[in-house]
Amino acid sequence: MKFDTVIIGGGLAGLLCGLSLTRQGLRPAIISRGQSGLHFSSGSLDLLGHATSQTLDAALDTLTTEEPLHPYSLLGKNAVLDYARQTETLLAECGIAMLGQVNQPHRRITPIGTLRQAWLTPPDIALAPQQGERIAVVGISGFIDFQPHLVAASLRQTGVTVEALEIVLPQLDVLRDNASEFRSVNLARMLDDGEQWRSLHAALLPLATDYDRLLLPACFGLQDNSLWHWLNETLPCGLALLPTLPPSVPGIRLHTLLQRQFVKNGGVWLAGDAVTDIAHDGQNISAISTRNHGDVPLHTRFAVLASGSFFSNGLIASREGVFEPLLGLDVLQSAPRESWTRRDFFEPQPWQRFGVQTDTSLRALRHGKRFDNLFAIGGVLGGFDGITQGCAGGVSAVTALHVARQIAELAGGQP
Ligand SMILES: Cc1cc2nc3c(=O)[nH]c(=O)nc-3n(C[C@H](O)[C@H](O)[C@H](O)COP(=O)(O)OP(=O)(O)OC[C@H]3O[C@@H](n4cnc5c(N)ncnc54)[C@H](O)[C@@H]3O)c2cc1C
What we know:
The chain folds into 2 domains: 260 residues, FAD/NAD(P)-binding domain; 117 residues, Rossmann fold, CATH 3.40.50. The two termini are 26 Å apart. The protein contains 10 helices and 18 strands. It is globular, with a radius of gyration of 22 Å. It is of the alpha/beta class and 415 residues long. Helices cover 29% and strands 21% of the residues. α1 runs parallel beside α9 and α4 crosses α10. The longest helix is centred in the last third of the chain and has 20 residues. The structure holds flavin-adenine dinucleotide (FAD). It comes from Scandinavium lactucae. This is Anaerobic glycerol-3-phosphate dehydrogenase subunit B.
């Protein structure tokens, strides 16, 4: 099998890179072992969260000076801003509606009721309260992955009136036999069914007259947000959703929409397969072997490593150190091991910044030398802390588009 590009990993980074390549006339393949970070994420994307006290431009300048190894610093401010805008266009072309844009960050409400800055947020997800707003946080009886009292207590600190309430939905009783079945995705499979819409509406209607906005756990909208639209049109107050503990309905929806569009654009999606070996001839990747294709390796002109961080086994931690399992690429990491973590759980953790080293074109390095046709993107990269710096989704998007542009130019695709 021959491809112009093989992408290892079908999370946010791999999918955006693949989509961008298909738009530029190429036919990439994505090999994806299983679930990605999106299946657990909020569904929102962050570009640079600590820009709250600074403009994004100024925050990127500071980053370039203070953190030269951050992926944004490798690319440069103008490129980062440009790729971020291109991501907005790409998502819109995939039919993925998002609120927000570069240079206009907003704050969304997190599953524990705190406010967090975001770049892009699905329109059904709750944004920060308005002054004087009366809010009811509405739990679903028996659903323990969302705690309305906790959310309400945090939200009250922003000065708004908030109450914690609960609705009972007897139609969900069939899921209650096994507590582990009473999860957001299973609830969504039931509630998204058009037959169930009216009973959800009936349970919410008595509450809706007393508040400006109801906040519900994101337990519906697995394929699209038509139920959310319908409830907003038919209830006398607004309704918005809060991401729950994983699994994440909005994250899975984002993944599904990106993946479907990738296939629709002609990309090849090799799901449930795993790359087991990468053959190289000096600094050139020549063939990629996978679990399912055994002795029939995939031949490719370009390879993109989008295998994620520790969470997805794109990086592995052992007693000896942190390593990249497919090629033993150079990894940014601190030694000794005691310096990987800080005692205070809420402090930035050094291990978050561990990851593969590249040059400014994002070509991966091994023993200090770069591969000519192997790029690395997204969570597998080192030099950033997606949680503390609020840039996880942004790094995935921006690095994906940077690599796709270079591959398209080298392959002679249409710009
Ligand atoms: C709980 C949680 C909440 C988050 N919330 C936010 C948020 O609010 N805002 C934000 O911006 N970001 C958030 N993120 C982060 C965001 O989802 C990540 O930036 C993003 O998922 C990283 O994408 P990625 O494609 O690089 O890696 P991943 O999503 O980790 O995907 C890597 C993929 O590669 C596959 N893979 C690995 N090795 C192989 C192999 N050998 N062969 C084949 N496939 C392989 C894995 O199975 C996986 O599917 C969150 C993440 C998590 C986990």
